[in-house]
Design a protein that fits this description.
This protein has 138 residues and is mainly alpha-helical. The protein has 2 domains: 75 residues, no CATH class; 50 residues, no CATH class. It is built from 7 helices and no strands. Helix 2 packs antiparallel against helix 3. 6% of the residues are buried. The mean pLDDT is 84.
Length: 138
């Protein structure tokens, strides 16, 4: 979505320049399939006259049903947990720093290091808050 917001300046119409990134943001969060399809049609209609943007959207995000399911929220509705880059990074830190890259740990070791990681994160947050208070940043 950040890429679309940055490239919105290529759109000639100033109203559409603002509306299209907003609509794409909403599309990226629409969990209902029928609303999702309607929104795609509306966005493509808004992009009439902007063939470069329309072609990019179709070729990159809308080219196959499998590709749409990779990023569309309606296909992830039944998932137990959603991940993002912060979650993936924390998992990597936990695995590499605390578990020493081990794929198989005993449950007691995994829990011990998980609690240790939480304590370390809590300590780091407290230090950051203390520095902000001392430097009058609140």
């Amino acid at each position: 979505m950040r890429n679309w917001a940055q490239n919105a300046s290529r759109i000639q119409d100033k109203d559409r320049q603002k509306q299209i990134p907003e609509q794409l943001y909403l599309l990226h969060r629409e969990p209902r399939w029928n609303h999702f399809e309607r929104m795609v049609v509306e966005i493509l209609t808004m992009l009439d006259g902007e063939e470069d943007c329309k072609t990019y959207l179709r070729s990159t995000y809308l080219n196959t049903e499998e590709r749409i399911k990779e990023w569309a929220p309606y296909s992830r509705a039944g998932l137990v947990a959603h991940t993002n880059m912060a979650v993936e990074r924390w998992h990597r830190t936990l695995k590499r720093t605390y578990l020493n890259g081990s794929q198989n740990s005993r449950i007691d070791q995994a829990l011990f290091y998980l609690f240790k990681a939480i304590e370390d994160i809590n300590r780091e947050c407290n230090v950051q808050v203390t520095w902000k208070v001392l430097n009058n940043q609140y």
